[in-house]
Amino acid sequence: MEGFRHAHHPELISALRRLAQEWENSRQGWLVGGSCGLWLQGVELDNAPRDIDVYTDLAEAHTLHEILQPRSIDKQVFDRSGMYVSLLSHYQMGPYVLELVGGFEVKTGGSHYRVEVGELLIDQASSVQLGAERIRLMPLSHEFLFNILRNRPDRYVPIVEVICLHAREHLPLLRNLIRRNVWAQEHLHIISSQLEERGILDGL
Question: How far apart are CA 36 and CA 99, in angstroms?
Answer without folding.
Answer: 12
